[in-house]
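Our consortium's second objective concerns turning raw sequence data into structural hypotheses that experimental partners can test. To show how far this objective has progressed, the report includes one record in full. It was chosen at random from the queue rather than selected for favorable results. The single chain below, 282 residues long, was entered without modification.
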Amino acid sequence: MSKFASMRVNRSWLQAGGAFAVLVAAGLAANAAAQSSTSPPDFSSNQAAWLHPPGGEFPAVAGSPMPMRQDPAHPFVGNNTGRQPTYRMGDVSNPNLKPWAKDVMKKDNEQVLAGKIAFSARSSCLPGGVPVFMLFGGQPIFFVQSPKEVLMIYEGDHQIRHIYLDVPHSAKPTPSWYGESVGHYEGDTLVVDTIGMNDKTVVDGYRTPHTEKLHVTERWSLINDKTLEVKITVDDPDTFNQPWSTFQRYQRGQQTLEEEACAENNQHLFDYHIPVADKVDF
């Protein structure tokens, strides 16, 4: 077991719903102590909750290959528009996609057009992974900063990312849903490097697949007192012809972290591929 896996086991209690209030309070106290000596950027002061506007795709960045976009033959229609909503279906003509990824997405699009549910990690009660974590909306994310670790907590379903500070990656991290994230501060910016993700997640809202070579770099910084920005670079040489870049911006809100569990037995109308135990565990 790597030292990071051991650290995750030792911190497993953090993911218990009833511990969140204690977690935030302890993290804020540790962050205040760290501020006095190193003064890293403070993303968690005053119990800040960070929300981004609705939207299911990553913005384009000048000079970078285009992130996935909707198939123009089947325009996307969102909810509450007065029209029949549709699902997101990726444009497989994107020149940055490797042939195998195009084939996977083409088959997925055909199944959606035939009536399949275009399920997402959130609707299926599954971990989202990176970088799609930055597309999670509806509920805020919270930061808990300490000298050795940063936690990013998404309120919906209590999904947690662990970023271990000022340490190298493991030589061979075991693939996992959120991978292995290490980080450091560069002045007023938190730099996060993530590898070791399994291939069960998708890259974006268009269900773009990836391999275990996926490598994501994030640079989190405050634009002003109310705006947090993360610049993202995505690299997977087996899925994309070139690395591509994007960003996400969050607006500060003052609220406490609430508990919101993913709905169990969400199968009455549709099969959202929610994991179901085949036997009792007690």
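The partners drew two points from this record. Residues 1-26, 31-36 have pLDDT under 50 and may be disordered. Residues 48 and 254 are 5 Å apart (CA to CA). Both points have been shared with the crystallography group to help prioritize constructs.
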